[in-house]
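Quick one, probably user error.
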């Protein structure tokens, strides 16, 4: 099985940095490991268990500690937040050999929710996490409540996904120096990239992930190309939030796909792919408004 980290020292640096980011959340939290058929899944919970549950799903090669640092305070006031480290990703979830052989995203999330005794849950995700959120909504309509997809799209082909990813991340991701990481960040962001660059721990973590994490360990998280009749099943309970400067989700073909399938979306000004970092206040309000009203 592909090791998640390029070296043991790299893993240590990422985990140390992960813990520093958690300490900067500014909200009380609890870390829990949930056994699943694919290995242990690490989650972070915040907020009162009496609040409506909200499942948070991060993007490829990201993790919960870095993804929700600017959102957790406000969201945990309204929800019982369950931030999941994707199994195979750069967080603290630990995949087992079964993960490599036969990974089913819906079954995996079923097991996480079953362990928490949660029958139905609202979901919010960013980038790949946005895809995973609506994927679960399609595969498990009775378990998924409302869904918010940030910096996400509905691709028409695997080629479209790979083409956009390669254009966005290369060549900088191939040669992860601190300067190339900064260039990549500015390439992916809108004008508000300072929310990263002025946060020393966040930038350090981003650099460690690019340098020490093996992205191929997320390859089991496949993208399904859904048909219009499948997408229609989530039409009335899904909102897409798209940054106006996000090269990965704001382009004519992606917007046309949302409109063709009559999926609700809102364009967030002055935001790139890291929409929930760059415009955290507005994104937090949009999530709360859509899910609670």
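Nope, works fine. Designed sequence:
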């Amino acid at each position: 099985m592909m090791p998640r980290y390029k070296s043991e020292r790299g893993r240590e640096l990422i985990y140390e940095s992960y813990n520093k980011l958690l300490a900067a959340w500014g909200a009380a939290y609890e870390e829990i490991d949930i056994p699943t058929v694919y290995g242990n899944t690490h989650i972070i919970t915040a907020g009162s268990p009496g609040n409506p549950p909200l499942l948070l799903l991060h993007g490829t090669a990201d993790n919960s500690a870095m993804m929700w640092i600017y959102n957790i305070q406000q969201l945990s006031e309204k929800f019982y937040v369950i931030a999941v480290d994707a199994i195979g990703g750069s967080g603290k979830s630990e995949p087992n050999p079964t993960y490599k052989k036969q990974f089913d995203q819906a079954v995996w999330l079923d097991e996480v929710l079953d362990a928490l005794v949660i029958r139905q849950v609202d979901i919010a995700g960013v980038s790949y996490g946005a895809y995973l959120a609506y994927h679960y909504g399609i595969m498990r309509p009775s378990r998924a409540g409302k869904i918010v997809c940030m910096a996400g799209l509905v691709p028409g082909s695997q080629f479209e996904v790979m083409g956009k990813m390669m254009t966005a991340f290369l060549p900088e991701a191939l040669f992860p120096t601190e300067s190339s990481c900064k260039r990549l960040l500015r390439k992916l962001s809108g004008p508000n990239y300072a929310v990263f660059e002025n946060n020393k721990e966040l930038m350090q973590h981003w650099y460690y992930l690019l340098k020490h994490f093996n992205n191929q360990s997320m390859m089991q998280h496949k993208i399904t190309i859904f048909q219009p009749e499948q997408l229609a099943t989530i039409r009335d309970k899904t909102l897409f939030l798209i940054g106006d400067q996000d090269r990965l989700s704001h382009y004519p073909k992606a917007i046309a796909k949302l409109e063709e399938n009559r999926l609700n979306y809102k364009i967030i000004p002055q935001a790139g792919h890291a929409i929930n970092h760059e415009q955290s206040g507005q994104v937090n309000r949009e999530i709360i408004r859509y899910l609670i009203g």
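DSSP finds 14 helices and nine strands in the chain.
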